Amino acid sequence: MGGPAHQAAFLSGRRMDPARYECVLVHGSLAPGEESLAELCHDEGATTNFVSTLRQPVEPLQDLRALAKLSRIARNFEPHIIHTHTAKAGFLGRQAALAVRPRPSIVHTYHGHVLEGYFGAAKSGLYRRLERLMARRSDHLIGVSQATVGDLVRLGVAPQEKFSVVPLGLDLAPLAEADDGLRAGEREAMGLNAGDVLCIFVGRVVPIKRLDVLLDAFAAARKAEGRLKLAIVGDGDLRPELEKQAAELGISEAVRFLGYKSELKPMFAAADLAVLSSDNEGTPVSLIEAAAAGRPAVATDVGGVSEVVDDGTGVLVPAADPDAFAEALVELARDPEARQRMGTAAKQRALARFGVDRLLADIDSLYTELVAARAAA
Q: Is the domain of 258 the same as that of 198?
Protein backbone atom coordinates (compact mmCIF):
# COMPACT_ATOMS: atom_id res chain seq x y z
CA MET A 1 0.00 0.00 0.00
CA GLY A 2 1.06 3.59 -0.53
CA GLY A 3 1.93 6.07 -3.23
CA PRO A 4 4.29 3.86 -5.29
CA ALA A 5 1.70 1.08 -5.56
CA HIS A 6 -1.07 3.48 -6.55
CA GLN A 7 1.07 5.16 -9.18
CA ALA A 8 2.39 1.88 -10.63
CA ALA A 9 -1.17 0.52 -10.90
CA PHE A 10 -2.51 3.60 -12.68
CA LEU A 11 0.45 3.68 -15.10
CA SER A 12 0.14 -0.01 -15.97
CA GLY A 13 -3.57 -0.37 -16.63
CA ARG A 14 -6.23 0.72 -19.07
CA ARG A 15 -5.88 4.40 -18.23
CA MET A 16 -2.77 4.45 -20.40
CA ASP A 17 -4.12 4.56 -23.97
CA PRO A 18 -4.16 0.87 -25.04
CA ALA A 19 -3.78 1.94 -28.65
CA ARG A 20 -0.35 3.34 -27.78
CA TYR A 21 0.81 1.39 -24.73
CA GLU A 22 1.26 -2.25 -23.83
CA CYS A 23 2.34 -2.53 -20.20
CA VAL A 24 3.33 -5.21 -17.73
CA LEU A 25 3.67 -4.48 -14.01
CA VAL A 26 6.31 -6.56 -12.21
CA HIS A 27 6.02 -6.72 -8.43
CA GLY A 28 7.59 -8.56 -5.53
CA SER A 29 6.69 -9.99 -2.15
CA LEU A 30 5.20 -7.93 0.64
CA ALA A 31 7.35 -6.92 3.57
CA PRO A 32 6.22 -8.10 7.03
CA GLY A 33 3.23 -6.11 8.23
CA GLU A 34 2.40 -4.76 4.76
CA GLU A 35 -0.92 -5.09 2.97
CA SER A 36 -1.39 -5.51 -0.76
CA LEU A 37 -2.91 -3.21 -3.37
CA ALA A 38 -3.21 -6.08 -5.87
CA GLU A 39 -6.96 -5.49 -5.97
CA LEU A 40 -6.37 -2.00 -7.37
CA CYS A 41 -4.10 -3.46 -10.08
CA HIS A 42 -6.88 -5.88 -11.00
CA ASP A 43 -9.48 -3.11 -11.07
CA GLU A 44 -7.22 -1.02 -13.30
CA GLY A 45 -6.79 -3.92 -15.73
CA ALA A 46 -3.03 -4.16 -15.24
CA THR A 47 -1.16 -7.21 -16.50
CA THR A 48 1.04 -8.30 -13.60
CA ASN A 49 4.03 -10.58 -13.13
CA PHE A 50 4.99 -11.70 -9.63
CA VAL A 51 8.65 -12.22 -8.68
CA SER A 52 8.71 -13.87 -5.26
CA THR A 53 12.44 -13.24 -4.70
CA LEU A 54 12.00 -9.49 -5.14
CA ARG A 55 11.56 -8.60 -1.48
CA GLN A 56 12.91 -6.84 1.58
CA PRO A 57 15.45 -6.84 3.16
CA VAL A 58 18.74 -7.10 1.26
CA GLU A 59 19.58 -10.79 0.74
CA PRO A 60 22.37 -11.25 -1.85
CA LEU A 61 21.35 -14.73 -3.02
CA GLN A 62 17.65 -13.88 -3.30
CA ASP A 63 18.50 -10.54 -4.91
CA LEU A 64 20.57 -12.29 -7.61
CA ARG A 65 17.67 -14.64 -8.29
CA ALA A 66 15.31 -11.68 -8.52
CA LEU A 67 17.68 -9.92 -10.92
CA ALA A 68 17.88 -13.00 -13.14
CA LYS A 69 14.07 -13.26 -13.25
CA LEU A 70 13.65 -9.55 -13.92
CA SER A 71 16.20 -9.73 -16.74
CA ARG A 72 14.33 -12.63 -18.37
CA ILE A 73 11.02 -10.81 -18.11
CA ALA A 74 12.52 -7.65 -19.60
CA ARG A 75 14.22 -9.45 -22.50
CA ASN A 76 11.05 -11.39 -23.34
CA PHE A 77 8.85 -8.28 -23.21
CA GLU A 78 11.29 -6.13 -25.27
CA PRO A 79 10.12 -2.83 -23.77
CA HIS A 80 10.76 0.63 -25.12
CA ILE A 81 10.68 1.97 -21.54
CA ILE A 82 11.38 0.46 -18.14
CA HIS A 83 10.01 2.61 -15.32
CA THR A 84 10.91 1.59 -11.76
CA HIS A 85 9.57 2.61 -8.35
CA THR A 86 10.96 2.15 -4.80
CA ALA A 87 14.55 1.49 -3.76
CA LYS A 88 15.00 -2.29 -4.13
CA ALA A 89 12.89 -2.65 -7.27
CA GLY A 90 14.52 0.49 -8.66
CA PHE A 91 18.03 -0.87 -8.18
CA LEU A 92 17.38 -4.36 -9.54
CA GLY A 93 14.93 -3.25 -12.21
CA ARG A 94 17.34 -0.75 -13.69
CA GLN A 95 20.10 -3.34 -13.74
CA ALA A 96 17.76 -5.71 -15.56
CA ALA A 97 17.03 -2.99 -18.11
CA LEU A 98 20.71 -2.88 -19.02
CA ALA A 99 20.49 -6.54 -20.17
CA VAL A 100 17.87 -5.73 -22.84
CA ARG A 101 18.83 -5.17 -26.47
CA PRO A 102 17.99 -2.76 -27.93
CA ARG A 103 18.37 -0.89 -24.67
CA PRO A 104 15.11 0.67 -23.43
CA SER A 105 14.82 4.12 -21.94
CA ILE A 106 15.21 3.87 -18.18
CA VAL A 107 13.10 5.98 -15.80
CA HIS A 108 13.03 5.83 -12.01
CA THR A 109 10.61 7.57 -9.66
CA TYR A 110 11.69 8.52 -6.14
CA HIS A 111 8.65 8.54 -3.86
CA GLY A 112 10.97 9.64 -1.08
CA HIS A 113 14.34 8.18 -0.16
CA VAL A 114 16.22 6.33 2.59
CA LEU A 115 19.61 7.89 1.87
CA GLU A 116 19.92 9.72 5.18
CA GLY A 117 18.35 9.42 8.60
CA TYR A 118 17.35 5.76 8.29
CA PHE A 119 20.64 3.87 8.68
CA GLY A 120 24.11 4.35 10.08
CA ALA A 121 26.74 6.41 8.28
CA ALA A 122 28.41 3.45 6.54
CA LYS A 123 25.21 1.92 5.16
CA SER A 124 23.78 5.31 4.15
CA GLY A 125 27.03 6.12 2.34
CA LEU A 126 26.91 2.79 0.48
CA TYR A 127 23.30 3.35 -0.59
CA ARG A 128 24.12 6.83 -1.84
CA ARG A 129 26.98 5.49 -3.94
CA LEU A 130 24.73 2.81 -5.44
CA GLU A 131 22.04 5.37 -6.22
CA ARG A 132 24.57 7.62 -7.94
CA LEU A 133 25.71 4.67 -10.04
CA MET A 134 22.18 3.77 -11.11
CA ALA A 135 21.29 7.43 -11.70
CA ARG A 136 24.11 7.68 -14.24
CA ARG A 137 22.61 4.71 -16.09
CA SER A 138 19.09 6.16 -16.04
CA ASP A 139 17.72 8.34 -18.81
CA HIS A 140 15.41 10.32 -16.56
CA LEU A 141 14.65 10.62 -12.85
CA ILE A 142 11.41 11.73 -11.24
CA GLY A 143 10.70 13.05 -7.76
CA VAL A 144 7.15 13.18 -6.44
CA SER A 145 7.86 16.51 -4.77
CA GLN A 146 10.26 19.40 -5.14
CA ALA A 147 11.53 18.66 -1.64
CA THR A 148 12.42 15.10 -2.68
CA VAL A 149 14.28 16.30 -5.75
CA GLY A 150 16.07 18.95 -3.70
CA ASP A 151 17.26 16.31 -1.23
CA LEU A 152 18.53 14.02 -3.99
CA VAL A 153 20.42 16.82 -5.73
CA ARG A 154 21.93 17.90 -2.41
CA LEU A 155 23.03 14.33 -1.71
CA GLY A 156 24.75 14.16 -5.08
CA VAL A 157 22.55 11.45 -6.59
CA ALA A 158 22.26 13.33 -9.91
CA PRO A 159 22.24 16.91 -11.21
CA GLN A 160 19.05 18.94 -11.19
CA GLU A 161 18.66 18.77 -14.98
CA LYS A 162 18.21 15.00 -14.89
CA PHE A 163 15.11 15.31 -12.69
CA SER A 164 11.55 16.40 -13.13
CA VAL A 165 8.89 16.77 -10.47
CA VAL A 166 5.77 14.71 -11.16
CA PRO A 167 3.40 14.82 -8.18
CA LEU A 168 1.39 11.75 -7.31
CA GLY A 169 -1.87 11.23 -9.12
CA LEU A 170 -4.76 9.48 -7.40
CA ASP A 171 -8.35 8.61 -8.22
CA LEU A 172 -9.87 11.15 -5.86
CA ALA A 173 -13.38 11.51 -7.28
CA PRO A 174 -15.00 8.90 -4.98
CA LEU A 175 -13.55 10.57 -1.89
CA ALA A 176 -14.77 13.97 -3.03
CA GLU A 177 -18.33 12.61 -3.16
CA ALA A 178 -18.61 11.83 0.57
CA ASP A 179 -21.81 13.35 1.93
CA ASP A 180 -23.42 14.16 5.27
CA GLY A 181 -25.44 10.94 5.24
CA LEU A 182 -22.34 8.78 4.99
CA ARG A 183 -20.66 10.86 7.69
CA ALA A 184 -23.58 10.52 10.09
CA GLY A 185 -23.89 6.78 9.56
CA GLU A 186 -20.20 6.06 10.03
CA ARG A 187 -19.91 8.25 13.13
CA GLU A 188 -22.91 6.51 14.66
CA ALA A 189 -21.33 3.12 13.90
CA MET A 190 -18.16 4.28 15.65
CA GLY A 191 -20.11 5.43 18.71
CA LEU A 192 -19.13 9.07 18.33
CA ASN A 193 -21.10 11.91 19.85
CA ALA A 194 -22.18 14.90 17.79
CA GLY A 195 -19.56 17.17 19.37
CA ASP A 196 -16.63 14.74 19.15
CA VAL A 197 -13.71 15.84 16.98
CA LEU A 198 -12.26 12.78 15.26
CA CYS A 199 -8.64 12.82 14.13
CA ILE A 200 -7.61 10.14 11.65
CA PHE A 201 -4.21 8.69 10.82
CA VAL A 202 -3.96 6.43 7.77
CA GLY A 203 -0.74 4.62 7.00
CA ARG A 204 1.75 1.97 7.98
CA VAL A 205 2.37 1.52 11.68
CA VAL A 206 6.15 1.74 11.40
CA PRO A 207 8.88 3.75 13.18
CA ILE A 208 9.26 6.51 10.56
CA LYS A 209 5.61 7.53 11.09
CA ARG A 210 6.40 8.40 14.75
CA LEU A 211 3.03 7.37 16.10
CA ASP A 212 4.62 7.48 19.54
CA VAL A 213 4.88 11.26 19.10
CA LEU A 214 1.29 11.39 17.87
CA LEU A 215 0.03 9.56 20.95
CA ASP A 216 2.00 11.85 23.27
CA ALA A 217 0.58 14.88 21.47
CA PHE A 218 -2.95 13.49 21.52
CA ALA A 219 -2.76 12.76 25.25
CA ALA A 220 -1.67 16.34 25.94
CA ALA A 221 -4.38 17.73 23.67
CA ARG A 222 -7.06 15.62 25.37
CA LYS A 223 -6.27 17.26 28.69
CA ALA A 224 -7.24 20.62 27.19
CA GLU A 225 -10.00 19.42 24.85
CA GLY A 226 -11.82 16.28 25.93
CA ARG A 227 -13.90 16.01 22.76
CA LEU A 228 -10.89 14.83 20.74
CA LYS A 229 -10.88 11.23 19.50
CA LEU A 230 -8.25 9.42 17.39
CA ALA A 231 -8.57 6.62 14.83
CA ILE A 232 -5.41 4.86 13.61
CA VAL A 233 -6.09 3.09 10.31
CA GLY A 234 -3.25 0.78 9.35
CA ASP A 235 -1.14 -1.91 10.88
CA GLY A 236 2.40 -3.03 11.56
CA ASP A 237 4.75 -4.62 14.06
CA LEU A 238 4.63 -1.57 16.35
CA ARG A 239 0.91 -1.82 17.04
CA PRO A 240 1.15 -3.76 20.35
CA GLU A 241 3.76 -1.32 21.64
CA LEU A 242 1.61 1.66 20.69
CA GLU A 243 -1.50 0.14 22.25
CA LYS A 244 0.49 -0.26 25.45
CA GLN A 245 1.64 3.38 25.22
CA ALA A 246 -1.96 4.54 24.79
CA ALA A 247 -2.96 2.59 27.89
CA GLU A 248 -0.10 4.07 29.92
CA LEU A 249 -1.11 7.57 28.80
CA GLY A 250 -4.70 6.91 29.87
CA ILE A 251 -6.18 7.52 26.42
CA SER A 252 -7.17 3.99 25.36
CA GLU A 253 -10.86 4.89 25.47
CA ALA A 254 -10.28 7.74 23.02
CA VAL A 255 -7.94 5.93 20.60
CA ARG A 256 -9.05 3.21 18.20
CA PHE A 257 -6.59 0.98 16.37
CA LEU A 258 -8.66 -0.11 13.38
CA GLY A 259 -6.10 -2.01 11.29
CA TYR A 260 -6.12 -1.80 7.52
CA LYS A 261 -9.31 -0.69 5.79
CA SER A 262 -9.80 -1.33 2.08
CA GLU A 263 -12.51 1.33 1.89
CA LEU A 264 -11.37 4.71 3.23
CA LYS A 265 -14.24 6.89 2.05
CA PRO A 266 -16.35 6.23 5.19
CA MET A 267 -13.31 6.80 7.42
CA PHE A 268 -12.54 10.21 5.97
CA ALA A 269 -16.24 11.11 5.93
CA ALA A 270 -16.44 10.43 9.68
CA ALA A 271 -13.26 12.35 10.48
CA ASP A 272 -12.81 16.04 11.24
CA LEU A 273 -9.01 16.20 10.95
CA ALA A 274 -6.27 14.19 9.26
CA VAL A 275 -3.03 13.80 11.22
CA LEU A 276 0.49 12.78 10.27
CA SER A 277 3.47 12.79 12.62
CA SER A 278 6.23 11.36 10.39
CA ASP A 279 9.92 12.17 10.60
CA ASN A 280 10.17 11.90 6.82
CA GLU A 281 7.75 11.68 3.89
CA GLY A 282 7.83 11.78 0.11
CA THR A 283 4.29 12.80 -0.76
CA PRO A 284 1.77 11.61 1.85
CA VAL A 285 -1.07 9.80 0.09
CA SER A 286 -3.23 9.81 3.20
CA LEU A 287 -3.22 13.61 3.43
CA ILE A 288 -4.10 13.95 -0.26
CA GLU A 289 -7.01 11.55 0.17
CA ALA A 290 -8.17 13.32 3.32
CA ALA A 291 -7.97 16.66 1.53
CA ALA A 292 -10.06 15.33 -1.36
CA ALA A 293 -12.69 14.43 1.23
CA GLY A 294 -12.56 18.01 2.53
CA ARG A 295 -10.57 17.37 5.69
CA PRO A 296 -7.82 19.73 6.89
CA ALA A 297 -4.62 18.32 8.37
CA VAL A 298 -2.23 18.70 11.26
CA ALA A 299 1.10 17.33 10.09
CA THR A 300 4.83 17.54 10.59
CA ASP A 301 6.67 19.81 8.19
CA VAL A 302 8.94 17.18 6.63
CA GLY A 303 9.79 16.07 3.08
CA GLY A 304 7.01 16.80 0.62
CA VAL A 305 4.28 17.40 3.22
CA SER A 306 4.33 21.17 2.67
CA GLU A 307 3.48 20.57 -1.00
CA VAL A 308 0.22 18.96 0.15
CA VAL A 309 -0.60 21.04 3.26
CA ASP A 310 -0.19 24.82 3.51
CA ASP A 311 -1.49 27.52 5.82
CA GLY A 312 -4.83 27.54 4.06
CA THR A 313 -5.44 23.79 4.23
CA GLY A 314 -4.07 22.79 7.63
CA VAL A 315 -1.37 23.35 10.21
CA LEU A 316 2.28 22.30 9.87
CA VAL A 317 4.36 21.70 13.00
CA PRO A 318 8.00 20.72 13.59
CA ALA A 319 8.89 17.04 13.62
CA ALA A 320 9.22 15.26 16.98
CA ASP A 321 7.49 18.12 18.82
CA PRO A 322 4.42 16.72 20.61
CA ASP A 323 3.72 20.03 22.36
CA ALA A 324 3.40 21.92 19.06
CA PHE A 325 1.31 19.10 17.62
CA ALA A 326 -1.00 19.13 20.66
CA GLU A 327 -1.43 22.89 20.45
CA ALA A 328 -2.48 22.63 16.79
CA LEU A 329 -4.96 19.85 17.57
CA VAL A 330 -6.60 21.88 20.32
CA GLU A 331 -6.73 25.01 18.17
CA LEU A 332 -8.56 23.29 15.32
CA ALA A 333 -10.74 21.19 17.60
CA ARG A 334 -12.14 24.41 19.07
CA ASP A 335 -12.64 26.18 15.72
CA PRO A 336 -15.16 24.38 13.47
CA GLU A 337 -15.31 27.35 11.11
CA ALA A 338 -11.56 27.13 10.50
CA ARG A 339 -11.87 23.40 9.88
CA GLN A 340 -14.63 24.02 7.36
CA ARG A 341 -12.69 26.77 5.60
CA MET A 342 -9.46 24.78 5.46
CA GLY A 343 -11.27 21.63 4.39
CA THR A 344 -12.89 23.39 1.44
CA ALA A 345 -9.55 24.81 0.34
CA ALA A 346 -7.84 21.44 0.81
CA LYS A 347 -10.40 19.74 -1.42
CA GLN A 348 -9.98 22.27 -4.21
CA ARG A 349 -6.18 22.02 -4.04
CA ALA A 350 -6.09 18.22 -3.98
CA LEU A 351 -8.43 17.75 -6.91
CA ALA A 352 -6.54 20.27 -9.03
CA ARG A 353 -3.01 19.12 -8.21
CA PHE A 354 -3.16 15.41 -7.44
CA GLY A 355 -5.76 13.95 -9.81
CA VAL A 356 -4.96 10.82 -11.80
CA ASP A 357 -5.65 12.50 -15.16
CA ARG A 358 -2.88 15.00 -14.52
CA LEU A 359 -0.47 12.18 -13.65
CA LEU A 360 -1.30 10.29 -16.84
CA ALA A 361 -0.79 13.39 -18.97
CA ASP A 362 2.57 14.16 -17.34
CA ILE A 363 3.90 10.62 -17.78
CA ASP A 364 2.53 10.26 -21.31
CA SER A 365 4.38 13.44 -22.28
CA LEU A 366 7.62 12.17 -20.73
CA TYR A 367 7.37 8.74 -22.36
CA THR A 368 6.68 10.32 -25.75
CA GLU A 369 9.78 12.51 -25.46
CA LEU A 370 11.96 9.57 -24.40
CA VAL A 371 10.83 7.33 -27.24
CA ALA A 372 11.33 10.12 -29.77
CA ALA A 373 14.81 10.84 -28.42
CA ARG A 374 15.75 7.16 -28.54
CA ALA A 375 14.49 6.88 -32.12
CA ALA A 376 16.49 9.93 -33.18
CA ALA A 377 19.71 8.74 -31.53
A: yes
